Amino acid sequence: MRSRFGLKCMKCGSENMEAGHATGGLGGPVMFRPRNTKFWTLKPAVELEAYICLDCGRLEFYGDTLGAKRITDKECD
Ligand SMILES: [Zn+2]
Q1: How is 2-16 classified by DSSP, letter by letter?
Q2: Which of 1, 26, 58, 60 has its CA 20 to 30 Å from the CA of residue 7?
Q3: How far is CA 1 from the centre of its chain?
Q4: C-alpha 17 – ligand 1 centre gap (Å)
Q5: Can you tell me the distance from the alpha carbon of 44 to that of 14, in angstroms, rounded to the nearest whole number?
Q6: What is the pLDDT of residues 20-44, one digit of tens each?
Q7: Ligand 1 mean position, distance from CA 52 (Å)
Q8: Strands of 11-45, DSSP E
Q9: Residue 58's pLDDT is what?
Q10: Taking a C-beta distance cutoff of 8 angstroms, is the pair 58, 52 a contact?
Q11: How does residue 60 score in pLDDT terms, banded at 50, 70 and 90?
């Protein structure tokens, strides 16, 4: 989780990226909910992994691709 291989800031080109999570007001993780989820899915959202560039402050978010495929209809692609 800590260092995504080859992650580079798309703004300033720095490789000084720090991993973390975006959190809401109560400290819970911010989730991404795909528009087309299966209606019977128990957990219709995936957690986001965030990276901040320590040189310019740009934030990048990545989602759990396997989880996103599981809750949408893209599982068999
Ligand atoms: Zn940067």
Answers
A1: ---TT---TTT----
A2: 26
A3: 11
A4: 8
A5: 34
A6: 988 887 888 888 888 888 877 777 8
A7: 8
A8: 17-20, 31-32
A9: 97
A10: yes
A11: very high
Rounded to whole angstroms, the Cα distance separating 13 from 30 reads: 26
Please tell me the distance between residue 10's alpha carbon and the centre of ligand 1 in angstroms: 7
- The overall pTM is greater than 0.90: no
Q: How far is the CA of 29 from the centre of ligand 1 (A)?
A: 23
Query: Which of 31, 3, 28 is closest to 17 using CA atoms?
Result: 3
pLDDT at 1 over 60: no
Looking up tokens 């978010």 gives 61
Gap between the Cα atoms of 21 and 47, Å rounded = 9
Distance (angstroms) between ligand 1 centre and the Cα of 1 equals 19
User: Ligand 1 centre and the CA of 33: distance in Å?
Assistant: 27
Q: How far is the CA of 13 from the centre of ligand 1 (A)?
A: 6
> Which tokens sit at 64?
């759990």
